Amino acid sequence: MATYPKVSLAAVLKEYDQPLVLEELVVPPLEPGAVLMKVECATVCGTDVHIQRGRLPGAQIPLIAGHESVGTVIAMSGRDRDANDQPISAGDRIVFSYPWCGSCYWCTIAGQPTLCEATRMYGWGPMTESPHLTGTFSELVYVRPECNILRVPEELDPAVVASTTCALRTIMHGFERLTQTGPVLPTDTVAIMGSGAVGLYATAVARRSGAAKVILLGAPQDRLEIGSSWGADQVVDITATSAEERRDIVMCLTNGRGADIVLDCAGPVAAFEEAMELTRRGGRVVEIGIGTTDPGTISPYYLNIKMISVTGSVSGAIRHYHRALGFVRSNTGTFDFGLLNTRGFALSDINLALAGVESQEYLKPYIEPSRR
Ligand SMILES: [Zn+2]
Ligand SMILES: [Zn+2]
User: Fold this and answer.
1) What is the pTM of this model?
2) 19, 81, 248, 255: least CB-packed within 10 angstroms?
């Protein structure tokens, strides 16, 4: 067996609103069930920027940032199969889920592991707790025993795979929640709010779900163009329209009724209210990827008189990672998923990548720790 690595370079957030700093950290010894993964590629998420800016109360500094990745098994202890019952050994390419504890009420009786309160999410810190190597902007990542892992086919593009571990698995969870309220019918119009990675993946999944019409509302224009190429029949630039105009456009496209299904992947609380306006009477709304606890002002009128059903989802369990990988694998010839990942960086340039996400210059840049 190869020698166990002693140190790993990692990008550390020590203070909010400050650049990440590269540090050489000691690699913790493996406990039973844990995996040491060498990061092949880690994609940057809007959440990483929110954490850097101190906007997410759950984060605890100092922390190793980053939570989306694909990598190679360097060492394992007491684990030899993935969640799909495939054999796993050193050298295999994997993705991993957050460490939902697997034994609390939420993980077991409720069957909703993404509500687990005992988890320690990757990229959220604190790195003062053992095992500290739990962020993906790092050469090596300590995959905790509670994390589920999945083997990844070698032919898939690494940046696309890394993107599935957050944006697309989140959408797979959102669609699961949607279909718990009924199927997507071949006559349905699906409107998607938000053209970040989550909204764009929602567009592709909605297209493949069999819906008759897919409408994407977002900005800027280059993201809407990706949406068009991923199956949106109509795109609406939110920087060139008022909420009223957007409502008129959606009404016009739906015989004056509104969309059967609205997937709100936009982020701001105000988008939720707009989603209610874009949905037809008796239609369905799914809230995905909001991440704010700001209060809104939604009237019960929408649920009562308009009879809209609202559901939502957060993050994803391992089955959603599995579906996300399956989706990119079976649709690689249909959609150019690499359009999200236009720019790669070395680990030392992590702050450029974060700044590019914040300024919307890059959609989902990626870090390759082996790049110099
Ligand atoms: Zn993410
Ligand atoms: Zn749990």
Assistant:
1) 0.96
2) 255
